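Lab manual, section 2.4: Encoding a predicted structure.

Procedure: take the sequence of the chain (473 residues), apply the prediction step described in section 2.3, and record the output as structure tokens. A sample record is shown.
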Amino acid sequence: MGHLIVCGVNFHFHPLAIREHLVIPDSCLKHGLMALGQFPHLSESVILSTCNRTEVYAVVSDVSKGFAEIESFFRSVQQVSDHASLSPNYKLMGDDVALHLMRVASGLDSMVLGEGQIMSQVKFAHQCALEAKTAGAVMDNLFKSALNCGKKVRSQTSLGKRAVSISSAAVEIAKDYFKERNVEFDKLKVTILGAGKMAKICLKHMLGSKKAPKEIRVVNRTKRDLLDCFQASKVSAPRVIEVNETFTFEERHQAIAQSDLVLVATSAHRHLLTKTETEKTLSGLKSKCLIVDISVPRNVDPELATIDGITLKHTDDLAELVNKNLDERKRVAQEADDIIFACLDEFTSWQKARSVVPTITELKEKVETIRQAHIQGAGSVEYKALSREEIARMEEISQAIVNQILHIPMVNLKAAASSSDIQALARQAETLRNLFNLDPLSKKCAFSQSQMQLQPNENSQLSQNHPVQPGKQ
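Recorded output:
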């Protein structure tokens, strides 16, 4: 019987400065799953890596060895050598794993309450594991249950009314910042560095404001048309200076000198704005600028915060919104509790039923084989001499006897599935298998070496040059 576990780091315990070293880019997720597949005690695995967390969900044959192998995996993907500070800091088992993932998918465990992108991130993690063949029946059902739970929470509670994301929260932080300084938001000159999904959400959220900034520049490595964002916002678009008309990507540091607000949201894995280049650009200028970096890993050198006139905020500064919304979090969590625990019960019931199905099926098959062998008498002359009606009657009587004998064991085992915990149920199923001389259940639950595992070797951990390394491109 496999054990369900999760191990990882998240924003509750580790700051961005630590989390960013363990981010696994989408393009490298399958490489990470392949590495996990090499460990002997992990029969199933899924990696969920977002700006708030990097988690490994797994089905393991041995809990302590499974956790140790996941910790080894985390040590292999980090960029720095400080293993002690970067080791996973929370571990969950059994039903707690399912409960945790359902809260994550529902947006209740996000830094920004109800954050909308987490559903697509959970779905992507699930799909990658299916394609990499590291997600078996348990992981597949767990993630489907979590996604279904997330949909129900968003559709049946007030959480669904919140169109929030990391990007929209970044804009809200900027609005609060300038409001405190009595600066009108529509008077700002804004530069957005990046043109991906998060950058577009920033743009759309600004345009959805009653007073959109008077000037918005978009600077990106490659030229992309973002006019669809303005059209989708259904508001009057401000003057947009498209990339390459004023600033090229190479001139991104100059944009700071002519901007009141810079929003940084790219998928790069290095600092795109550095202190040295920024100081050169601002030399002799008296510029005041707020920079909000929502990229993970960070794209803005933290040292920019030491430059006079520069205020730098990043993802962890969204904690300001968390603290403001503590009461709302509690209220929404209470609304969602019934839905989440109902979904948890469904998943737990599925697990229990799954644990006894092989035993019930094989017991029926074995008894049926014995019945058939004795009725037919191994092709005896007496059996062949029976009429069709006599054979039918013999079949009916023998089947009734078998059903009567199996009835009580089957009823008791199914009843145990609705009341016992999974491990106790597994022990009962194993006892029944021993009594009827069936194969050990552990053989039925294990993945074959040829299908799911590679023999552990010196490549069991990702090397410094492996594609999953978050700092490499």
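Check your result against the sample. The longest helix spans residues 326-376.
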